[in-house]
């Protein structure tokens, strides 16, 4: 009788694991669809605010520096949602925005010298 109970518990547990696994694939599919909808929404907003040459420049930038292109896209979408854009942005307008973003995200290069102390010299070890 204990074997029957144990077998029933095993079947129940297996069914629970299979249902959880099925839910996770559905959840994963839902996340993928949401990501695709967000991408389509971003592209439609960018198509409304950028002219053809500016879109081409932005897509070229995305190939070389994806993080910078994403920052510019976010900036443009935010401005469009706030109603700060008056018409389509030309390529020269996009270049100005790129320069602003570059200045904000510019990394400062610093060089730090670590000098050895007098007692830590390797010259003394040549004996």
Automatic annotation (TrEMBL):
Residues 1-42 are annotated as: Disordered. Transmembrane segments: none annotated. Keywords: Acetylation, Apoptosis, Phosphoprotein. It comes from the Eukaryota. Residues 7-24 have a biased composition (Basic and acidic residues). One of its GO terms (biological process) is apoptotic process. InterPro entries: PDCD5-like (IPR002836), PDCD5-like_sf (IPR036883). One of its GO terms (cellular component) is cytosol. GO terms for molecular function: DNA binding. May function in the process of apoptosis. Belongs to the PDCD5 family. This is Programmed cell death protein 5.
């Amino acid at each position: 009788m204990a074997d029957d109970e144990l077998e029933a518990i095993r079947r129940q547990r297996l069914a629970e694991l299979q249902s959880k696994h099925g839910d996770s694939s559905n959840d994963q599919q839902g996340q993928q669809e949401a990501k695709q909808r967000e991408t389509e929404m971003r592209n439609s907003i960018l198509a409304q605010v950028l002219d053809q040459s500016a879109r081409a420049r932005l897509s070229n930038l995305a190939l070389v520096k994806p993080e910078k292109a994403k920052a510019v896209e976010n900036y443009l979408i935010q401005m469009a949602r706030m109603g700060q854009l008056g018409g389509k942005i030309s390529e020269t307008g996009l270049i100005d925005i790129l320069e602003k973003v570059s200045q904000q995200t510019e990394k400062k290069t610093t060089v730090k010298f670590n000098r050895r102390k007098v007692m830590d010299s390797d010259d003394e070890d040549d004996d």
